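pipeline: protein-struct stage 2 | run 1193 | Pyridoxal phosphate homeostasis protein
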Amino acid sequence: MTDRKTELAANLAQVEERISAACAAAGRKREEVTLIVVTKTYPASDVRLLAELGVRHVAENRDQEAAPKAAECADLPLIWHFVGQLQTNKVRSVCSYADVVQSVDRKRLVDALSGAAVGAARELGVLIQVALDVDSGERGQRGGVGPDGVGALAEAVEAADGLRLDGLMTVAPLAGPYADQPRAAFDRLMEISSGLRVAHPAANMVSAGMSSDLEEAVAAGATHVRVGTAVLGVRPRLR
């Protein structure tokens, strides 16, 4: 194995141990939690190595980086997640490679994604990003819609052609009542998810937790964790 592949294999093994231990502590089965490796700022060669090591879910947050990388890796059996704040002018490009968009937080974006998905003859999975640093329907500091805006947005996604409502996503907030309290934030997300599933039973995906707080996310009940640094290393600074 190349040095880089050996390094990635060791990092993946450590993350796997963490997820397995967190599942055991929470009384959950390991297969209930899916690892998504966030590959932003790292090259397509790393994505290829990850695929060789068994990774199936990868995530990106900037279309200008993700689009060429996904094209370079188009032959791999990967599921691509878009997790960054998304401008409507990037929607057509994102829709050409992403299988799931995790950062949907406004009706205008739902409409744009629907048009792009229909145009590309694809079905796109959608997660509503929930902002836990705001109380009302305004957008959060890191994107997302306030908890009271989730229901209306879910109805919009459900009614939109080409889109499939898969569930919810959040990022542990830096401000507000849940600042520095990832477990409390993820518990709140699970409450919102339970409410969502009453009307939308199939929307059972809950994406929460990153390298620093994946244990808290697993304990709360997250179905997907998004891990970058713990697998790929500390990110190079963007120029």
